[in-house]
Amino acid sequence: MRVFHLSAECYPVAKVGGLADVVGALPKYQNLLGLKAAVVMPYYNRKFVQENHFDTVFQASTLLGTRRLYFEILKERTDKLGFELYLVRIPGLIDREEVYQYPDETEQFIAFQIAFLDWISYSQQTPDLIHCHDHHSGLVPFLLQHSKLYTRLANVPTILTIHNGQYHGAFGWDKLSYLPEIDVTKTGLLDWGGSINPLASAVKCCWRFTTVSPSYLQELSISSNGLEYLFYLERAKGSGIINGIDTEIWDPNNDPMIPHKFSIKQIAKGKQADKQALCERFGFTPEKPLVSFIGRLVLEKGADILPAALERSFNEHPGKFDMLILGAGEKGVENGLLHLKKVYPEQCNVFIGYDEALAHLIYAGSDFLLMPSRVEPCGLNQLYALRYGTLPMVRSTGGLKDTVVDFGDEGGYGIRYNNASIDDICDAISRALTLFENTKHVQHLRKIMMALDFSWDRSAKEYINLYESLNPII
Ligand SMILES: Nc1ncnc2c1ncn2[C@@H]1O[C@H](COP(=O)(O)OP(=O)(O)O[C@H]2O[C@H](CO)[C@@H](O)[C@H](O)[C@H]2O)[C@@H](O)[C@H]1O
Question: Which residue from 16, 247, 294 has its CB within 8 A of the most atoms of ligand 1, so it is best to mutate?
């Protein structure tokens, strides 16, 4: 079965967050299970692209409204990622460094989708399925069915996976003419709340949609930035499949990004040595419990309440624990955290920026990982933490609820709390510090955590089962 994954991100080509991790791993594991899965993404002028060899497999021009665009499809020569990787390059529009936040982002993603469809249409390819990820490829299900240009492909099944339902990619009707030769009687399928809404359109037009955890599927009908009623109406098409992690990249026993390797058989020594390295770099005391936070500094992740919650915790437990934060995002949050570091230089350190290697070291060298997310469709950080024997402290929401069991419950191994609030974060930190005093218990929990299996094997199969359930129609 030949499947194209369409995504704005893919690790290690271009990563902003967890979307890249998933799209960089799922197709690899699907191929191991006998599928022919490929990734198609926009071209970014970044390290991976500069350092690898690509062949031009297709060239043409297309129209974005009245603007003629020349595009090419590049293929990575060796399939070194475990799948065919295709990049859509459009000089002057899709050939830049950053993934998001250009003023013409709408034009970029529409052009990406049109170029992909033109390519497979003109080159007479008929994939067995197209798998769209988030709103960046959300117009594809509509265009396949309701643009005259692609009628040959109208029966190709489409699946949408929602990694983040907060972002919809909505734009005004003045840009309708960017969409090629559509059936105007069907424009209602593009609309939500008076705008063209790619995520809403994908939910309406795809054959099936998935969320990256079962709990998140339920939550979208209650909170999805305005699409609640749509998710309620379309609920029969949805299912939740929890993300896996790439256990080749995230392996404490074979991770080139950490100085000391360790396995479940011998956790304490290696983990303590990594902690030592981390503490030396950030001026901490390795004997004290180390709590960390990694992630985008945005409201969804509860990052805005971190400064106040941590300040209170530092006062409740003066000198008793260290706190390390790695992230970038909203300026107000960044400044709040930098201010905290100034006021509590002994207990708190903050690294503003994006650093993949440092993230690996933090998962390996921390005792606890704090995740007070308001919204967490799946969450990968807690899964990486578990794999590196670091105890996740999570708010009970979305995928965090589906993957972490409180250590107070039978078979549990993490810390869970109900609210993204200062009170709950402070309580969770107090529980963590009490737990840390019981070294034997901590060691026991680390063993449980590291034995958990969140590899892609099971989830990749679930996606394939879903693809095959559309088979009679294929
Ligand atoms: N400053 C930094 N430096 C280095 N690494 C950093 C970093 N900030 C974040 N990361 C890394 O980025 C990834 C973030 O993963 P999340 O699952 O939290 O992603 P995100 O919220 O972006 O994705 C959305 O999609 C994913 C995938 O489906 C869902 O798990 C998630 O709930 C949903 O919000 C992890 O690999 C983390 O280590």
Answer: 294
